[in-house]
Write a structure and sequence with these properties.
The chain is an alpha/beta fold. Helix content is 46%, strand content 13%. β8 and β9 form a beta hairpin.
Length: 484
């Protein structure tokens, strides 16, 4: 897989600043007779938490015991819960817990923590040879300090894939001639969704306007960031710590036409908390979501009066027609709290162990996360680890990882650099168009129930004037967010 960005040597002075810890012996500043206890805060739950805890136990019983490091992990609940707890610790809020030694963090949250001076400089504990083992763009993403040094240790990454209810798709395709090849582009998905709506509507000729949605997507912010990148525009361009906002009307019109318009007309949908929920209820056939969502793709559709088993397909996430083949690079890394040499060194030793191919792929087999070492990103290495460790891997998770590894030669991963108020800006991308579409879809649906046909009911909402109104509001919201 190609990764957007320059090589590690040219984008990070991390390696050049690696100071090493000479004179400390093979265990650095550690003493096995007086082990260091480290706390890790994360947001893993369920099977992911179990997999993480199992690896922590393995570390404590082996390398940790040998070096004098004991690690204990604590789930803080959701990502939002973890971020709230970290901010409370940094700010010294009443009742807040002390900062953990290590915590999971997305780039925007880590950037905030770094600005407050709370993070350790990981460049002091990694040499150039070690850094070069990691995927270049993962290291680049973690170099968020003003001097370019490393603050986020890449531990597990993800990208987006498309998952499809194969069982119901085949019924639709057999009747209409729809092709999976049409789903390779975003425009093709929109056209297919229109055809699916009309096909389902035609099955009940006595009830006009009751067609069903075909497609939805999680993380609408990714649609903006990656969609614009595919069209040659970096919406958040960051250089020397300063962000330039790029919102050209022509490109944003394409995004609006291929998400808002099909949402308003009922060709796309968003009903439950996640689009995999909507597949389970039969409200959608396909969605774009994180590789980590594969394990949640349902085994059956459950409606009020019936349920039936379904098969699935894992596909590449669609791209804009004629656009560059970019996919999102996402997933939290781990950061180390600033403390003292011994604790920081011990924390990095654990993270280096956790990200070695065997451990990282073992975690990925449960979580759907991608490994972070270059050597680990292949189906051959995945199969080797599964065989040697005798792992039981859910077929959907395996197929998802295999599909992503298979894209390696023709997809570039991208994530924007961190900047001040980045979290607020991302929230605008996530919710502004989604909320706008949901409100207008309700109006259109009510008009159809009142007797109007779909084209008549939606005409005012999909007009040039409607786009101009949304575009002005969207730009205002973004400018307000980044200017706060």
């Amino acid at each position: 897989m190609k990764y957007s960005g320059k090589t590690t040597k040219s984008i990070c002075i991390c390696a050049a600043l690696a100071l090493g810890l000479s004179g400390c012996g093979s265990n650095g500043p550690l003493d096995p007779k007086n082990p260091v206890s480290l706390t890790v805060w994360h947001y893993y739950n369920g099977s992911q938490q179990s997999a993480f805890d199992e690896l922590v136990k393995e570390f404590n019983d082996t390398v940790g015991k040998e070096k004098g490091i004991y690690v204990e992990g604590f789930s803080q609940g959701s990502v939002a819960d973890l971020e709230t707890a970290i901010r409370a610790s940094i700010n010294g809020d009443v009742g807040a817990q002390a900062m953990p030694d290590i915590f999971s963090s997305y780039a925007d949250t880590a950037y905030e923590a770094e600005q407050s001076g709370a993070l350790a400089n990981l460049s002091e504990y990694l040499d150039e040879k070690e850094l070069e083992q990691y995927v270049d763009s993962y290291i680049e993403e973690g170099c968020i300090a003003s001097d370019g040094t490393l603050r986020i240790f890449p531990t597990a990454k993800s990208t987006e894939i498309m998952m499809l209810n194969k069982t119901d798709w085949e019924l639709f395709a057999e009747d209409t001639g729809a092709s999976l090849e049409d789903l390779a582009t975003i425009e093709g998905v929109a056209a297919t969704a229109k055809a699916y709506y009309e096909w389902t509507d035609s099955q009940t000729p006595d009830v006009p306007g009751d067609g069903r949605a075909f497609y939805g997507r999680d993380a609408l912010a990714n649609y903006f960031i990656i969609g614009m990148q595919q069209l040659g525009v970096e919406i958040f361009h960051v250089e020397n710590g300063e962000m330039t906002l790029n919102v050209p009307k022509e490109e944003l019109r394409r995004l609006w036409e291929n998400y808002y318009v099909p949402m308003v007309k009922g060709y796309f949908g968003a009903y439950g908390s996640f689009r995999s929920d909507d597949v389970k209820t039969g409200d959608l056939l396909a969605y774009t979501g994180s590789t980590t969502s594969a394990m949640y793709f349902p085994d059956q559709v459950e409606k009020d009066d019936t349920s039936y088993a379904i098969d699935y397909l894992v596909m590449e996430a669609p791209v804009f027609d004629g656009g560059e083949r970019f996919a999102v690079q996402q997933g939290a890394g781990m950061v180390v709290s600033k403390s003292d040499e011994q604790r920081e060194y011990a924390a990095v030793e654990f993270l280096k162990w956790f990200t070695q191919a065997d451990q990282n792929l073992q975690f990925g087999c449960v979580s759907g996360y991608l490994p972070v070492l270059k050597e680990a990103g292949s189906i051959e290495k995945l199969d080797q680890v599964i065989s040697e460790k005798q792992l039981e891997v859910a077929p959907k998770t395996y197929d998802c990882l295999a599909a992503v590894f298979g894209e390696m030669e023709h997809i570039s991963l991208y994530t924007n650099k961190s900047f001040r108020n980045g979290s607020q800006a991302r929230k605008v991308l996530e919710y502004h168009l989604a909320d706008w579409a949901a409100q207008d879809r309700e109006s259109v649906a009510n008009a159809v129930k009142g007797g109007q046909d779909l084209e008549e009911a939606s005409a005012a909402f999909v007009s040039e004037e409607a786009f101009e109104q949304w575009y002005a509001s969207f730009c205002d919201a973004l400018n307000q967010a980044v200017g706060e």
